[in-house]
Design goal:
Length: 598
């Protein structure tokens, strides 16, 4: 286990990490007292979960009434009789709602899962549902800390209003999803909608949180001592997040670097249930039990899916009473008998996805990979673990699961991310750039092919538009402090055009090695965000046009981007004389930006 330093802040702090999972959610926290070494603790008691000692997670479910009021959340939404009450009072259930935040672009974007995700309650946005759930988790954390700590009420009073939060999210999510989660945190009253309030909220990918958990709970010795590469597979309810790291053995402080572009795939454990539902829907379509399929799938989820270990043995789903019999459909005494080979097919897409992703990480990694660590609720499946082990061990990989509560990996790891900050270098998973115009070169064939896109600039030069200028190529290793900057300029006849500006950052997600033009593989260009800046105070001097007829204004500037943190940071830089000036910028993620195609 990595050692941790004492907290050296001036006053007590509290950090809360919320892992909002597709199917289950957890809370971890740390009380930071000056001079004390912080410990990571988990909330292990929730409303309606009192009968389960040490329960570390609750179902990610909310019931609303017809007016949109919250009626039951988490374990309360699963208690005895709730299903019947919900039916009688026409409550609406929100589950798997996290997947509505997903990115719609790029590999593993999840466009194909739209039909499988339960719809949101009428007149509720995903941000509103997310906020309701965050508010509930906050209540649970507050009650637990006040009830279980010595002087808990005083402790809570001393930190309330200044709590730092860490929210984890799948590897495939970007600034657009982080912006939506931040809105939800504000709506849930976790933080105020101010610059200082936003500063109290951090984001971490589930892959990086899982690495931090593994470092504290059994990362292989080879990875810790020798710097061997390790793939972290966080197999959760909705997504499988795959990330690769190695320890920086030359650094004085214990740090890790990401060595391959992280991946996110929609092949979590809920998709095993989706395949089961499809199979049972076909199998029982003509049977007297056709109306019971949703109930049978719920029973499969709670028992058969968790216990499944051997495809050679028949599997049973107990869903009814001893009076429920239909031998023609293998139903006896309320039990449905399934072939083990059929159940194995429900798991197969997820297992194939994990195996392929791990091998892909090893192939593209900047350092050799020798270990694979599986965490997350789905990793508790012995069948899945054994199949992955059987497929990858012959390739010379060491496959293992940490002993300690793999389903708490993300929330505990998110606190460790905040406290220990092991990862200092990350990998770009897409190519970032900007569309601009460049000088026209009549000797270049690709320029002549696009002669229709040429124009004469304000300053009288012939230029060609829609050129993609790469700022950061895909699969580049970047440190947290590394700046990526490119020089651009704007020209106009009117000074009024320089009061403000918005610069767009675009991504290329396709397979062209050196993307150069907007009209090549167009569908794989997507707008990431806009960077808004106030230019009204910049000193601009009129310039004489080369023709001698009139004047124009020109602004030379650099876009400075920092990708090495868990959130994109941006600045605009320009020169006043020989002095470089910088301006803070506002990054705007349009909720629809992930769907914009050039």
């Amino acid at each position: 286990m990595a050692s941790r330093s004492a907290f050296n802040g001036p006053r007590r702090k509290l950090v809360l990490a919320f892992d909002v999972g597709t199917t289950y959610s957890g809370i971890s926290y740390s009380v930071l007292d000056p001079g004390q070494v912080p410990e990571i603790k988990g909330v292990t008691r929730f409303p309606a979960h009192e009968h389960i000692s040490g329960a570390s997670k609750i179902p990610t479910i909310i019931y609303y009434d017809r007016s949109g009021n919250v009626k039951a959340v988490g374990a309360e939404a699963m208690r005895e009789g709730i299903y019947e009450q919900a039916e009688d009072e026409q409550w609406v259930k929100a589950e798997w709602f996290k997947l509505h935040l997903r990115s719609r672009v790029g590999p593993g974007a999840g466009r194909e899962v739209s039909n499988d995700i339960p719809p949101l309650p009428l007149n509720k946005t995903v941000v509103e549902v997310f906020a309701d759930f965050l508010a509930y988790l906050f209540e649970c954390a507050s009650s637990y800390i006040q009830d279980t700590h010595a002087n808990g009420v005083d402790l809570w009073a001393s930190v309330k209003g200044q709590i730092d939060f860490v929210l984890s999210h799948p590897n495939g999510w970007e600034g657009t999803q982080q912006a939506e989660m931040r809105k939800a945190a504000v709506l849930a009253s976790l933080i105020p909608d101010t610059t200082a309030g936003h500063g109290r909220l951090s984001f971490v990918t589930e892959g990086e949180a899982s690495l931090h958990f593994a470092i504290q709970n059994g990362l292989p010795t080879g990875a810790m001592k020798k710097g061997d590469g390790v793939v972290i597979v966080d197999a959760g309810g909705g997504t499988v997040d795959v990330s690769s790291y190695s320890r920086n053995t030359s650094a004085s402080k214990e740090t890790f670097e990401e060595v391959a572009a992280p991946q996110c795939h929609f092949h979590g454990s809920v998709f095993v249930s989706i395949h089961a539902r499809l199979f049972l829907g076909n199998y029982l379509a003509e049977s007297p039990f056709a109306d019971d399929i949703e109930h049978i799938v719920r029973c499969f989820d709670k028992t058969t899916k968790l216990r499944f270990r051997n495809a050679e043995e028949p599997q049973y789903v107990k869903f009814g009473s001893t009076r429920d019999n239909d031998p023609s459909y293998n139903i006896r005494f309320g039990q449905l008998k399934l072939l083990g080979t059929d159940v194995a097919l429900f798991f197969e897409p997820s297992i194939d996805c994990i195996n392929k992703a791990v091998l892909d990480q090893r192939r593209t990694a900047h350092k050799p990979i020798s270990h694979v660590v599986l965490v997350g609720g789905f990793a508790a499946s012995d069948y899945m673990f054994n199949k992955v082990h059987a497929a990858l061990a012959p390739a010379g990989l060491n496959i293992l699961r940490p002993e300690n509560h793999v389903n708490k990996a993300v929330s505990d790891g998110a606190i460790s991310f905040y406290l220990d900050h092991f990862v200092r270098t990350r990998i770009s998973k897409i190519t970032y750039g900007n569309f601009c115009h460049i000088p026209y070169n009549p000797n270049a064939q690709d320029h002549r092919d696009r002669a229709a896109k040429t124009f004469i600039s304000v300053s009288g030069h012939k230029r060609i538009s829609d050129s993609f200028d790469v700022i950061l190529p895909k699969n580049t290793q970047i440190s947290e402090t590394k700046e990526f900057r490119k020089s651009y300029f704007r020209e106009s006849d009117s000074r009024n055009d320089f009061k403000s500006a918005s610069f767009s950052v675009w991504c290329y997600r396709g397979l062209v090695a050196e993307p150069k033009w907007k009209d090549v593989d167009t569908k794989n260009y997507t707008k990431l965000c806009s960077i808004d800046i106030d230019l009204s105070y910049l000193p601009l001097t009129p310039r004489t046009k080369p023709s001698g007829n009139g004047t124009f204004f020109r602004l030379d500037y650099d876009i400075v981007l920092m990708f090495g943190l868990t959130e994109l940071k941006a600045q605009i830089a320009w020169k006043e004389g020989n002095i470089e000036k910088r301006s803070a910028t506002k990054i705007v993620y349009d909720p629809d930006a992930a769907n914009d195609v050039a």
